[in-house]
Amino acid sequence: MKKLVLAITCTALLALSACSSTGSKSGSGGDGNAEVAAVIKEAEAAIKKANSAGGAWRDSQKKFIKQAKAAASKGELEKAMKLAKKAKFEGEMAYQQAMGQKDAGPWLF
Q: Of 45, 63, 69, 85, whose CB has the highest number of CB atoms within 10 Å?
């Protein structure tokens, strides 16, 4: 099970790093800010969904969302977008992990 979770995480991180190269439009002002705010809201919704399943990961809400909001307020849109996407990804993966392991029980030897 650990190998499966590790494989999924590695694959998703590779996909996430490929997506992060698109970045945001730092020169567009409000448009980039609105885009970052939308991704932050999506990340918060994903984390809330993971919390409802009892499987949210530690750093998603406390660290990445907080840092993304701080970076967005400073105008660092690329950094904010990267952190928001990371938090969203972790929220989605935490939900999938919780659903995949909801029927897990002790092994009987």
A: 85
Q: 20-72: per-residue pLDDT in tens?
A: 544 444 444 557 899 999 999 999 999 999 999 888 888 887 799 999 999 99
Neighbours of 29 (CB within 10 A): 11
DSSP reduced 3-state for 57: coil
Are the C-beta atoms of 77 and 36 separated by less than 8 Å?
A: yes
What is the C-alpha end-to-end distance of the chain, expressed in Å?
17
- pTM higher than 0.85, yes or no? no
**What are the DSSP calls for 38-49, one per residue?**
HHHHHHHHHHHH
Mark residue 105 as left, alpha or beta (left: phi above 0; alpha: psi -120 to 50; beta: remaining): beta
